[in-house]
UniProtKB/TrEMBL annotation:
Protein name: Monosaccharide ABC transporter substrate-binding protein, CUT2 family
Alphabetical UniProt keywords: Signal
Annotated compartments: Cell envelope
Molecular-function annotations in GO: carbohydrate binding
Ranges of residues in domain Periplasmic binding protein: 67-326
Main location, first listed in the record: other
Keyword Transferase listed: no
Organism: Enterocloster clostridioformis
Superkingdom field: Bacteria
Length: 372
């Protein structure tokens, strides 16, 4: 089940954007060649820059809206799957005659490139843009430029800090961080040595998730944060960071991680080092869930508040409503669906690879193409 509620613009700065959703997804139409960059990016290490916007032509006669996804990265499987969710929704809207054409840009985490991508989309006179931003502040002026040109803009996942956009869409990222921190404190009875795995420094999601967790940890003076690392929500970086911290700290009682792939890397690092497994926060990543299930009997406990990859599709649905003249609240907040020790088995997909993210709207045919 998917639920959404809305709050006023004043809460935007305290929220980041993603979503929550049902494990079983409604069927969508698989995307054509426009998704080639996304498919290639399903590999965790694929970070090849998209040098120009990709376009998919629409229905005969050019009727319908022209929309775009302005993406800052497809450098991990969450982002690759997220991009494909946009493609699937855009293709569905094309078959309905709502969308005639869509563009996708990727700046490979380059802020200046993403600003340039936005300017190019403004020049193309698109009707709407959904953006996940490399910086919440650096992209604000060009988003405002787009709004001034009459383009409807919605930011999601990593949001833009401006009132000139139509809305932000996603989960409350600060609450995401708080859920995991409160669970970890409870598991440790309010005292212990922990390490932290954060995402991409400077992004809204990273700052908000850690901000929510830090507020909790500050209430417990006996919780000692030994060290932290930015591991970009990536398995390999998460594993390497944890290996370094395991070498530096002979006693680690818990791990607060804001990303599932990083948590899987941390689990593997603990096992490789021969260290006892400790409570770890996680996310709805298939590999992390598999490792969690396989190591339950070895003392591993986890919780996984989750950020669904279909937030991009929800952002597109919201901006279409705005184009149709509907009133849109400034911040559309989606529930945080949480994987727990009681329901973890319901989310694991043994038929899918570790890089798959379990909260999706993509049909199995599309997923098989994405992760082949």
């Amino acid at each position: 089940m998917r639920k959404m509620f809305t709050v006023g613009l004043a809460a935007v700065m305290a929220m980041g954007l993603c979503a929550c959703g049902s494990q079983k997804a409604p069927e969508t139409t698989a995307a054509p060649a426009v998704a080639a960059t996304t498919t290639a990016a399903a590999s965790e290490e694929e970070k090849e820059e998209t040098t120009e916007a990709q376009a998919s032509s629409g229905t005969a006669g050019g009727e319908g809206y022209v929309v775009a996804l302005c993406n800052y990265s497809i450098g991990n499987s969450w982002r690759a799957q997220m991009e494909q969710e946009f493609v699937a929704e855009a293709e569905k809207l094309k078959t309905e005659g709502v969308v005639s054409e869509y563009y996708i840009t990727n700046s490979n985490e380059d802020i200046n490139k993403q600003i340039s991508d936005m300017q190019d989309l403004i020049t193309k006179k698109v009707d709407a843009i959904v953006i996940t931003a490399a910086s919440p502040t650096a992209l604000a002026p060009v988003v405002e430029e787009a709004a001034e040109a009459g383009i409807k803009v919605v930011s999601f996942d990593n949001v833009v800090e401006t009132d000139e956009q139509v809305a932000t869409v996603g989960i409350d990222e600060k609450e995401f961080g708080r859920i995991g921190a409160e669970w970890l404190v409870d598991k440790l009875d309010g005292k212990g040595r922990i390490v932290v795995l954060n995402g991409i420094a400077g992004t809204a999601t990273d700052s908000l998730r850690w901000g929510g967790a830090e507020e909790v940890f500050k209430q417990y003076p006996d919780i000692e944060i030994l060290g932290s690392a930015n591991a970009s929500w990536d398995y390999a970086q998460g594993k390497a960071a944890m290996e370094s911290m395991l070498s530096a700290y002979p006693e680690i009682d818990g791990v607060w991680s804001q990303g599932g792939a990083m948590t899987q890397g941390a689990i593997d690092a603990f096992i490789a080092a021969g260290r006892d497994l400790v409570p770890m926060t996680s996310e709805g990543n298939n590999g992390a869930i598999r490792a969690w299930i396989e190591n339950k009997d070895k003392g591993l406990s986890c919780i996984a508040p989750s950020n669904p990859t279909y937030t991009s599709a929800e952002a597109l649905r919201v901006v279409i409503k705005a184009l149709n003249g509907e009133d849109i609240p400034g911040n559309v907040v989606m529930d945080i669906e949480t994987v727990t020790e009681e329901n973890v088995d319901q989310y694991y997909r043994p038929d899918m690879p570790d890089s798959f993210w379990v909260l999706t709207e993509l049909d199995d045919a599309t997923l098989q193409k994405l992760y082949k």
